[in-house]
Design a protein that fits this description.
This protein has 393 residues and is of the alpha+beta class. The protein has 13 helices and 16 strands. Strand 1, helix 1 and strand 2 form a beta-alpha-beta unit.
Amino acid sequence: MKTAIVGGGAAGFFLAVNLKEMVPTMDVTILERSSRVLAKVEVSGGGRCNCTNTFEGVSADLAAVYPRGHRLMRRLMNGFSQHDAYQWFERHGVPLTVQPDQCVFPRSQDSHTIINCFLEACRRLGVNIRTGVKVTSLDELADYDFVAVTTGGSPRSEGLQWLADCGHEVVAPVPSLFTFNVADEPLRALMGTVADDAAVAIPGTKLRADGPLLITHWGMSGPAVLRLSSYAARHLADCDYRAPLAVNWVNRRDAVIRDELLRLCADGGRRQLTTVRPFGLTTRLWTMLAARALGNRAQGTWASLNQKELNRLVNTLANDTYAIDGRAPFKDEFVTCGGIALGAVNAATLESRHVPRVYFAGEVLDIDGVTGGFNFQAAWTTAYTVAAAIAAQ
């Protein structure tokens, strides 16, 4: 029997290798549109490939890490979890390491270790790899007994039209991981500065995220911003990427911030305000925030602060406001939300409800996660599910 895998990305290769291991007699062919395979894996994680996450501290419903598709992922991960993925790679010759933030990388810190693992397994198992093949209709694949679509995220709905023509509902794709353009020159002047524990939110909504925040020459990036961009992907698309942004620079409640500033007023005495930094903020960031709150009075001493000035400092640390003025792509981890609607597939097997023996895996489905290895885990889990479903037939 023959299986065509349309798409040469992470999900496609993982599916191919697992299917051949389950059914060695299966004829498996990967059809890749571009001239290169696994290009996205190569650049992911800054070239290191954050291949999964331990999920430590993640709630059982998974909604915090999968803004779209968390219910389906919770179900499918009963069959192939992050622990299974970790063991799979180590069993296939890729030693892994866990970072303090629970992200999992190859011990080599090189994405080519993952790529070489897939390519070597395909060579050993006899998986056919064809590049430069553009599939525009399922009719072109009539010679295959099974078809698995793993084309990844499409930047536009038109890229999924050939699947919509077969009756599959398509959720309009929009970017899901991106950084924020912020037209604030004093902020941008701090390019390269990191707030280790910040919280960002879109006022008037429940959309919020926390974690390290990186100031860039175009605005803001870092895990906190990337998480918020994922949670708010559709909201920001509807707003044409123009929205207010609230920043809590220390990710603490107002009362806690006030207590810390009062302590510094008592202990700092005649020391200049900008020479004593609360909550371990960098000198450059604290100097900018103090000036933002107090103007020239930021050159005064801690002992000279009056109640109104203290309130301004608390508000600036806890609820600093900026304007999102467009998005910048996070090229290393570019992800889209949207794709084939989950109602169009069987939740247990990911087989199409419209075309028998056609399956979907990876980002082509309306499943996407926040940064941190969760999108790759979705690729492994959905690909394994499809491989097992085809093998069972």
